[in-house]
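[09:14] KT: can someone run the structure on this one? pasting the chain below
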Amino acid sequence: MTVRVRPWTKRGKSGWEVDISFLWPDGTRYRERKKAPVTSESAARRWGQQRETHLMSEGKSALESEPEPTVQPEPSPVPTLDEFAPSFIRGHAKAKQQKQSGIDAKESILKHHLVPALGHKRLDEITDEDVALLLATFAEGIPDGHGGFRIKLTAKVKTINNRLTVLAKLLRVAVEWKKIPAMPCTVKLLKVPEEELTFYEQDIYDRLVDAAAKVDPRAHVIVLLGGDAGLRRGEIIGLFQTDVDFARHQLTVQRSSYQGKLGPTKSKKNRTVPMTKALEAALKALRHLRGERVLYRDDGTPLTPKKIRMWMQQVERRAGLPQTGAVHILRHSFCSHLAMRGAPARVIQELAGHTELSTTLRYMHLAKGAKHAAIELLDAARNELPNVAPVESTEGGSRPS
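[09:31] RB: done, structure tokens below
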């Protein structure tokens, strides 16, 4: 009995050919060559052995019915990170309808950081050492002036954590999809240092608002939407005229613009923000029939991040401030001013559209005197109680009847 296995190719297809040769009980020789219905050499050999055993046991009658021996399916090979990355983006990020900015960020992290470092490795072969070596690519040695080196991160801790989060999520999805049996490694995020949030003090902010009104009515509205209502840049671009309710003195934030396309807000929830008198007056002065959005460029096309940055730089220059073109500092100022004036954290969270309360609590240290005010509430409550006669001590005497 002989079973031979050799490579098989035909019309651009490849596989394994099984060559079976043996003697029937009557002494005649039988030989057949077939392409195995499996993909690996070892599985093809097992298939050939099962085929030979079946023919020998059933005799020549087996050639008439040609039943195929059962072959255990081969386990699917574990993909490499590079092979699995497109499925992760398509089947997880896009299938769950994540924000386009989030999808783009994941694709960028995979392309520029994870695939170059770990793309060649199978998912079940990624070890804790690999994660440590990946972290090492995010740092560099700086001479300390004494013959040694100190380690300096080449990116912010939050940025590095974003990259690690994508790796951890990709591996968890692979486990959910049964590509690997369990997490092959531990991915720990770096401790994020406390950062001071930059915001405009009230007098600086007022100066910025005055300067914006002199630059352009649209720049004036942009500054007030950020500083008086807490809107993000994409939310400012995506604000429709129908979102502004002058009768109720409020506006509804329900969409955001990213790369020229409208989508949901960052939290994927709508929120309602009451308008200050200054913001309401500025919006009334800007009403137009040009289109459905609140803000447009001179040529009638929707506003862009680049145009907003240009306006903000002009406003900052006129206000005598460094020209950054940044808009998000207005949102920080909105939250900071509310905290400094005693607004509750939950209210600030709702107005700003923060998903997590922990984000809002970063501003609450600005609430000066909040602790003293809280203790004063106890004194006030005690003063409101009616006068009650003190209870006499029963030590050394009888209890009062």
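[09:33] KT: thanks! Residues 157-176 form the longest helix (20 residues).
[09:34] RB: yep, looked fine to me
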